[in-house]
Amino acid sequence: MNKIKVITIFGTRPEAIKMAPLVKELENISEIENKVCVTAQHREMLDQVLDLFHIIPDYDLNIMKDKQSLTGITTRVLEGLKDIFDKEKPNLILVHGDTTTTFAGALAAFYNKIKVGHVEAGLRTFDKYFPFPEEMNRKLTGSIADLHFAPTTTSKENLLREGVAEKDIFVTGNTVIDAMNFTVEKNYVFQNSLLNEIDYNNKKIIMVTAHRRENWGKGIENICIALKEIVATNEDVEVVYLAHLNPLVKDVVIKHLGNLDRIHILPPLDTKETHNLMNKCYLVMTDSGGLQEEAPHLGKPVILLRDVTERQEAVNAGTVKIVGTKIEDILTETNGLIRDFLKYEKMSKAINPYGDGNASIRIAESILYYYGFEKNRPEDYNIV
């Protein structure tokens, strides 16, 4: 084998953020020929990341449809990848995390007897419906994968318990930390003019995102009621709520929080804007997966608006607090961080367990080792 032929597959903004630094790393390795295939499960948000990292896909399935279903996404990815695999005949495909693109990409490779590398492998909540469909997407992908790039030792231990051979698991750290080395700037000027007018030095800015399916309805409503109370009782607090465009989220947020002083409702920002807002804010409230990794890297405590997490390492490290969506719980934990400086300091200075910015290098070295281009197995990432 003169070169390892790899196809990197992703389709949503979160995948793209985390795969972009790996794509850039693979471009620099002479022993690897890497092609990029995007499914465009999310079209506009994906394109923002591609532009930011100057990535031009070799293949674009462009599968996104209005009101698309999980079944539709899966079948369109399976059908779209078949012709690409027939043409390229890759040695390895790389997928990331837990999206429907991830699972369908792994399944398509399995049908074609192509090896699969799973980036961000081994995350588990151990409840197949929380989060839905992500938990089963990552678990089923793990059953297919040949190479497992686990971000932490906890993820590795999850895989070992499921019967994955230790030789096939590489602990790498999380590539999202690599990505933030590209995106966060000390004196950043926002494209959104409102964000430039906020007084980050004298106000405690809370950045909020909440959009998961399990929070639709009562969950989102409770979050909004709690935020209204938090702002009303803390004069030094302002909220920036990045409201998902889905009407099941956006309409509820506007109903409860629209036209209120010190609450700013904005549409989702692009990656660079989001990371730099996070860098300037006081704390983060979210039901997102990725923000549990990103915010602690910047020293920002995370109030997690979910009942379970697949990122237990952050909870154990003290950077994330699982709160759920009960109004009283949100008020208690958030007000505690606003009013108790020692409590805030303890969370903000806890060590982030997710990486040192070299995950992409470790993944690339692991691929070279697996295919015999490197004699020595890369050392696993360990929290210092």
UniProtKB/TrEMBL annotation:
Coiled-coil residues: none
InterPro entries named in the record: UDP_GlcNAc_Epimerase_2_dom, WecB-like
Listed EC numbers: 5.1.3.14
Ranges of residues in domain UDP-N-acetylglucosamine 2-epimerase: 24-367
Key words, A-Z: Isomerase
Signal sequence interval, chain numbering: none
Enzyme class, first EC level, given as a word: isomerase
Matches recorded under Gene3D superfamilies: Glycogen Phosphorylase B (3.40.50.2000)
Organism domain of life: Bacteria
Family: Belongs to the UDP-N-acetylglucosamine 2-epimerase family.
Protein name: UDP-N-acetylglucosamine 2-epimerase (non-hydrolyzing)
Species annotation: Clostridium malenominatum
